[in-house]
C-alpha cells in the first residue's frame, strides 16, 4: 500500500515512532507517493525528538511560502525536510495556512515563530517545543 494521503487522529505513537515514519519517508523506503499526511497525536510530543536526525530546518513564515498542489492553500514557514531524492516536505504543527500568496503573516504567527525558533535552537530541556499536530505537505 502506498497512499497519497494519510489522516490519523488521536494516535498514541511516541516521538520515536513519528520519527521512524518521517525517516522512512526520507530514505524512500515507504510512502513514496505521499502528498499529505495529517498526523494528530493524543497528547503533546517533543517536536525536536520527532524530527531528530531528519535534518529539519525551521523556516520563517515571513519569507518562506509554498502553494500546496492545486488547492488554494499557501503554506508559510514550517519545518523543512528533504527526501534523499531531493523531494521537499513541509511540516506544520500550528494549523496556519493562507488562501492568497500575498497575505500578510499575522502577528500571532510571527510571535509563535520567534518562540519556536528559540526552542528549536535551545539545548535546555525547559525550552522544549511540544506539539500534537504534524501536518506533512509534500512538494
UniProtKB/TrEMBL annotation:
This is FBA_2 domain-containing protein. Pfam families: FBA_2. Residues 3-35 form the Sdz-33 F-box domain. It comes from Caenorhabditis tropicalis.
Amino acid at each position: 500500500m502506498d497512499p497519497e494521503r494519510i489522516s490519523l487522529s488521536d494516535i498514541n505513537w511516541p516521538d520515536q515512532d513519528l520519527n521512524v515514519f518521517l525517516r522512512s519517508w526520507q530514505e524512500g523506503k515507504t510512502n513514496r507517493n505521499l502528498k499529505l499526511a495529517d498526523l494528530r497525536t493524543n497528547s503533546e510530543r517533543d517536536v525536536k525528538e520527532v524530527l531528530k536526525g531528519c535534518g529539519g530546518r525551521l523556516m520563517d513564515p515571513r519569507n518562506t511560502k509554498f502553494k500546496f498542489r492545486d488547492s488554494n492553500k499557501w503554506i508559510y514557514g514550517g519545518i523543512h525536510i528533504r527526501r534523499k531524492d531531493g523531494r521537499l516536505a513541509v511540516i506544520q504543527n500550528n494549523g496556519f495556512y493562507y488562501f492568497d500568496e500575498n497575505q500578510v503573516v499575522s502577528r500571532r504567527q510571527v510571535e509563535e515563530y520567534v518562540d519556536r525558533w528559540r526552542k528549536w535552537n535551545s539545548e535546555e530541556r525547559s525550552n522544549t517545543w511540544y506539539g500534537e499536530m504534524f501536518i506533512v505537505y509534500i512538494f
